[in-house]
Design a protein that fits this description.
- This protein is an alpha/beta fold and about 450 residues long.
- The chain folds into three domains: about 90 residues, NAD(P)-binding Rossmann-like Domain (Rossmann fold); about 200 residues, UDP-N-acetylmuramoyl-L-alanine:D-glutamate ligase (3-Layer(aba) Sandwich), CATH 3.40.1190.10; about 130 residues, Mur ligase, C-terminal domain (Protein-Tyrosine Phosphatase, Chain A).
- It is about 35% helix and about 20% strand.
- It has 16 helices and 20 strands.
- α4 runs parallel beside α6.
- GO terms for molecular function: UDP-N-acetylmuramoylalanine-D-glutamate ligase activity.
- Keywords: ATP-binding, Cell cycle, Cell division, Cell shape, Cell wall biogenesis/degradation, Cytoplasm, Ligase, Nucleotide-binding, Peptidoglycan synthesis.
- It is an enzyme of class 6 (ligase).
- It catalyses: UDP-N-acetyl-alpha-D-muramoyl-L-alanine + D-glutamate + ATP = UDP-N-acetyl-alpha-D-muramoyl-L-alanyl-D-glutamate + ADP + phosphate + H(+).
């Protein structure tokens, strides 16, 4: 960890706890800041706040006092989930108090270079692939961000021999000032999180922050399948490395004659790759680019791509039962993600879908349901999805109470060679605390079948 004095004797407010808030508060305290933590959860129900108080950090719990900023704070470190419409954040901005996220702290203290990954879909898979490739290539990677450990905790332990591979959300990227990854990746850009950002334009602007501080000696890996990402290449100072599944790129990463190429060099025969789906090929190409830029050999890349079956809950292969293949894609919490999952298979599909009703319909899925032989729905949206299935001409339509009920029914409707796919197209919060719990219930139900 770098020894820095930037925060010594500065009054800093950490707004919102959870893992990132706790880590930020402890780090700032260690760096000599005068830290106050403010969290909505009452102190008696807040073990994180209790542990911070024991270390001498000031804690205010149960509310966000309206006059809190009158204490003269010089910096606010906010939890990424707290929107900028929060009155304390608006107040801080009006007072010209800098507002950052914990990722910025991690960058300030880190001795290691960062490889930052953002985008609408594919971030976790790409982050994990890069980490595995660098690990296989003996490049001493550490993994951080939305996947793995909180960034500042990782940065404290990192040395100049390490590479920090970090998944970054738009929420986190809005709160950076100096953060500068040596390699940045934008996997793709679609409309998302408009309840937080307000407009698509603001969402994209947040994503652009990943390269705003990059220089010519840094690299920006962009998805050239998308015209919007191509345009970003005109804005950055970094060296652009494009990737595409649709055209061969002499300078970049692409597929030609059944091989993945990097800057004209054959890396691996694509048929050897075990991770399914066109959208996963995009993730693979981005990962190959980052690995090659870091000096990983083709042999190490091939070792990973011939054994990596996916990240848990993200088109995760679960089991083959008498020729029926079960896949857990519980992370598909929106229609776009389910569309991508459906295009990953040519086999007949028994689709399990449903969840939180956000008021939208599902007719966008109809063009992607050609391979769906049966649709099993659950949750608040089960009737809406049945209606979509009727419009798509699916004859086998079933509504059940939950995922656990859906699994044995799906198996009974399947034949050898079919795929049973959990890809809900909805958030989980109507029935499950998060998509991970939903996915784990699916996995457990699959393992109970035989």
């Amino acid at each position: 960890m770098k020894t820095i004095t930037d925060y010594r004797n500065k009054k800093v407010l950490v707004l919102g706890l959870a893992k990132s808030g706790v880590s930020a508060a402890l780090l700032l305290h260690e760096l000599g800041a005068l830290v106050t933590v403010n969290d909505l959860k009452p102190f008696s129900e807040n073990p994180e706040a209790q542990s911070l108080l024991e270390k001498g950090i000031k804690v205010i719990c149960g509310e966000h006092p309206e006059d809190l900023l009158d204490e003269g704070f010089q910096l606010v470190v906010k939890n990424p989930g707290i929107p900028y419409s929060n009155f304390l954040i608006e107040d801080a901005i009006s007072r010209k108090i800098p507002v950052i996220t914990e990722v910025e702290l991690a960058y300030k203290i880190s001795e290691a270079e960062f490889i930052g990954i953002t985008g609408t879909n594919g971030k976790t898979t790409t982050t994990t692939l890069i980490f595995e490739m660098l690990k296989e290539g003996q490049k001493n990677p550490l993994i951080a961000g939305n996947i793995g450990t909180v960034a500042s905790g990782v940065a404290k332990e990192a040395t100049s021999e390490n590479k920090i591979v970090i998944e970054l959300s738009s929420f986190q990227l809005m709160g950076i000032r100096e953060f500068r990854p040596h390699i940045a990746i934008i996997t793709n850009l679609y409309e998302a999180h408009l309840d937080y950002h307000g407009t698509r334009e603001q969402y994209v602007e947040a994503k652009k922050n990943i390269y705003k501080n990059q220089r010519e000696e840094d690299f920006l890996i962009l998805n050239f399948n998308q015209e919007e990402c191509r345009q970003l290449a005109e804005e950055t100072k970094a060296t652009v490395i494009p990737f595409s599944t649709e055209e061969y790129l002499e300078n970049g990463v692409s597929v030609k004659d059944g091989y993945i190429y990097f800057n004209g060099e054959k890396v691996i025969e694509y048929s050897k790759v075990v991770l399914p789906g066109k959208f996963n090929l995009e993730n693979i190409l981005a990962s190959v680019a980052a690995a090659k830029l870091t000096g990983v050999t083709n042999d190490a890349i091939e070792q990973v791509l011939t054994t990596f079956h996916g990240v848990k809950h993200r088109l995760q292969f679960v089991r083959d039962i008498n020729g029926t293949l079960f896949y857990n894609d519980s992370k598909a919490t929106n229609i776009l993600a389910t569309r991508m999952a459906l295009t990953s298979f040519k086999q007949p599909i028994v689709l399990l879908a449903g969840g939180l009703d956000r008021g939208n319909g599902f007719d966008e899925l109809i063009p992607y349901l050609d391979n769906v032989k049966a649709l099993i729905t659950f949750g608040e949206t089960k009737d809406k999805l049945i209606q979509t299935g009727e419009k798509a001409g699916i004859e086998s339509l079933h509504a059940v109470n939950n995922v656990e009920e859906a699994v044995p029914l799906a198996y009974s409707l399947s034949q050898p060679g079919d795929v049973v796919l959990l890809s809900p197209a909805c958030a989980s919060w109507d029935q499950y605390k998060n998509f991970e719990i939903r996915g784990d219930i699916f996995i457990n139900a699959v393992h109970k079948l035989v």
